[in-house]
Amino acid sequence: MIRVDGLTKDYGTRRAIENLTFEARQGEVVGFLGPNGAGKTTTMRILTGYMPPTYGSAKVAGFDIVSESLEVRRRVGYLPETAPLYADMTVYEYLKFMADLRHLPNAEDMIDDALEMVGMEERAEGYVGALSKGMRQRIGLAQALLHKPEVLILDEPTIGLDPAQVVEVRKIIREIGKERTVLLSTHILSEAQALCDRVLIINKGHIVVEDSPENLQARLVGAERSILRVKGDADELAPKIAEIEGVQNVKAQPDGSVEFQFAPGMDVRPQVARAVIKAGYDLLELRPVGMSLEEIFLELTRDNTKEK
Amino acid sequence: MRNIWTIARREYRHYFISPIAYIVALAVLLIVGIYFVIVLYYVSNQALMYGATAPDISIVIGPMATIFLFATPALTMRLLADEQRMGTLELMLTAPIRDGELVIGKWLGAFLFTLTIIAITLVYPIVLNKLTSPGIDQGIMIASYIAIILLVALYLALGTAMSSFFSNQFAAFFATLAVLLIFWWLISLPTYIIPSGVFHDLFVYLDLNGRFGSMTRGVIALSDVVYPISLTVLGLLLSTVAVEMRRWR
Ligand SMILES: Nc1ncnc2c1ncn2[C@@H]1O[C@H](COP(=O)(O)OP(=O)(O)OP(=O)(O)O)[C@@H](O)[C@H]1O
Ligand SMILES: [Mg+2]
What total of structural domains would you count in chain B? Predict the structure, then answer.
């Protein structure tokens, strides 16, 4: 469980995050989504005891991050953004070192488990310095998972991984997220959508929106959208579609299709289809498209900058 | 305690795969060895012609004290600076260990490695003992080795502190060297211009070189032990504070 209350961090005179308040419950995967410099890493570093906040407080796994920092650190698994490792050690030595610092009683088994989870068993005897970027990322993740922590904090966990590994790692995170608390950060919206029970969109140190991926989508889409594809000139067709009652925002796309919106619950697609046929075009495709999280994200972060 | 040991063990092992550590160890052993052989040769020649007193342990300990002045900063320079540069400090500062345990562990690793080098130099007194009659003075030898061990302990602690101030190893190296030269040499100079009084006594007290000199003659006063240990503790405290301060930036 993570409970953050009014967290603020100043680096000198620059305010990195301001008055963040949110919660991540047990059995929940919470995604931190935001552009570069939004304050994701800063927040995670505070929650993992790396540095204290300037103002505000937070509890992780039931302990205060400042006054009970060691207790927090015992219960948290953390993958820092850069996945730092000791290049001069073998993978096994490195994990053994981290396990020893955590006083794990059956370190060997736990290391084997962690390595198996990230699919790196066969590189256990290899030197960390000789690993590829994606492999380092996986060893960093193994380190975070090593002690089966109550709370997992992962700073861009899938960055640098190949597609097969991305799928693999997401599966691990979802699995862990069923019983424990996971807070992860990402720029990849589809990742947040696929992984998280809740998404926090953060920009310039402020939380802009907090909701489930589904709700976010529904909340932002004021109108439903459809794409229409015909055989023939879309530019000529567009004005005819625009005449139909209930249709808004008709746009002829460069790829020869026509995009239009209509108010939710007022499906005008039959009328559109009829109009196309009447105008003498052959209808190739008529399908609804949701607003993607990408667009929601850009919209939200843009609005936020305008306010300032 | 356990965390200190875990970290010390990692550091100690690291020295055995680090070229710099090998160069340092080799330099210490070679320089002390060459000095040893030359002095022995010279003294035995002198003895043949004029008769002379047998050389004592100071021909080993003297050069060792000087060479460690340069060798220990090379051993400590990367301790915390490198963690900083490589980003692994984030790993250490979010692990369930105290900042002090990290610092003491680092220092202890370096100390144990230096003790290993010092242990190897024991061959010289053993050889000297065989070559001279009635052998070397055991008491002076033990006092000298205690003196050198106290000296490197504080050298390494001040080096650890410097390493935590900088994220660049070479900055840490030269800063350490400067600080060590101050304590070893510069700090005794004011005693020449202040002939007496409280300040004279203060500088005499702070002068490491003078204390080291009297210890290697076999006289160990309480303050000879207390002073270097205090400097060691001070170095480790400063280093811990520096690590702590990094969190607050
Ligand atoms: N060590 C530091 N010293 C000074 N300012 C910093 C430091 N670390 C981060 N900042 C500033 O704090 C703000 C937030 O940075 P942070 O690293 O938390 O962003 P982020 O959301 O993790 O970005 P990214 O997606 O690029 O990883 C930025 O304006 C950054 O310049
Ligand atoms: Mg970041």
Answer: 1
CA B203 to chain centre: 21
CB distance A80–B87 less than 8 Å?
yes
Q: Does B20 touch chain A (CB under 8 A)?
A: no
Give me the interface pTM, i.e. the ipTM. 0.90
**Domains parsed from chain A with CATH numbers:** 2-211 (3.40.50.300), 223-289 (3.30.70.100)
Tens digits of residue pLDDT in A140-190: 999 999 999 999 999 999 988 889 889 989 999 998 899 999 999 998 877
Structure confidence by residue, pLDDT tens digits, A60-110: 999 999 999 999 999 999 999 999 999 999 999 999 999 999 999 999 999
- Which domain, by its residues, includes B152? 2-247
The closest of A147, A100, A93, A145 to A124, measured between CA atoms, is: A93
B45 touching chain A per CB within 8 A? no
Within 10 A of B174 (CB to CB), how many other CB atoms are there? Answer: 15
Q: Which residues of A touch B (CB under 8 A)?
A: 11, 45, 48-52, 70, 73-74, 76, 78, 80, 82, 84-89, 97-98, 100-103, 143
Instruction: Answer whether A34 contacts ligand 1 (Cβ < 6 A).
Output: yes
Give this prediction's pTM. Answer: 0.86
The rounded distance, in Å, linking the Cα atoms of B172 and B58 is 30
Q: Which residue has the higher pLDDT, B9 or B197?
A: B9
Nearest ligand 1 atom, CA A9: 12
Burial of A68 (0-12, 13-18, 19+ CB in 10 A): middle
Ligand 1 neighbour A301 (Cβ under 6 A): no
